[in-house]
Amino acid sequence: MKSRQAVVELKDVTLEYAQSQSYSLKKLFLSKHEREKAVKESNSFRQSALNNVTLSFYEGDIVGIVGRNGAGKSTLCKVLSGVLSPTKGQFKSTVEIGALLTLSSFFTRELSGMDNIYLAGALLGKVKKEIESKINEIVDFSELGESISKPVETYSSGMVSRLAFAIATSFRSDILIIDEVLSVGDKYFRTKCLKRMDEIIKDSKLIIVVSHSDSDIRRMCNRAVYLDKGKVLLDGSVDEVLELYS
Question: How far apart are CA 10 and CA 94, in angstroms?
Fold first, then answer.
């Protein structure tokens, strides 16, 4: 039987960061070389967010990432999406990496929701024409209406999450990485998000989901990874991982 080929691999990946370091949207537009230089220059009070992580992800995987707050889940997502580069180890992807739901972390809050759609689209590697073709879909799905023209700093946390979800799931790609995908508001909007996720699952080669909800992991995923203090405690079936995690 032919062995499955990994589409994304991490080998002995460690990521250290300075406590004072922040990642604004502006900084993310620096070249990879400039980002790595900036990380090296802020070398005091370094902590390890990921510690010798080795994982392989395969086409058809829908992987749930679980762990307590501070376990390294969001950091892992940022490495997988190319937002952060490992301090040590190797990261390799053979397919296009897509949206990262934690885009909301990188919104420029003084700008309007519309401006942030353009910025987020550029961050995801989309050209202006591609972004403009998705604007109506993003605004309609997020249900922000006229608020899309207002500064993001005036939004509630639910509005910010809805905008991030709409952006992340409108720009389709081979791999979708989503962080706390369903923490986006009321029951009605949650159901709407689950429906869209069902559509995306059919079209994507690989989906990685971070969630604190066991039911969401069981509903969507066929594999799970348990992170603790930046290390992989278990990589296995959903039932095995959730039993250890609970």
Answer: 12
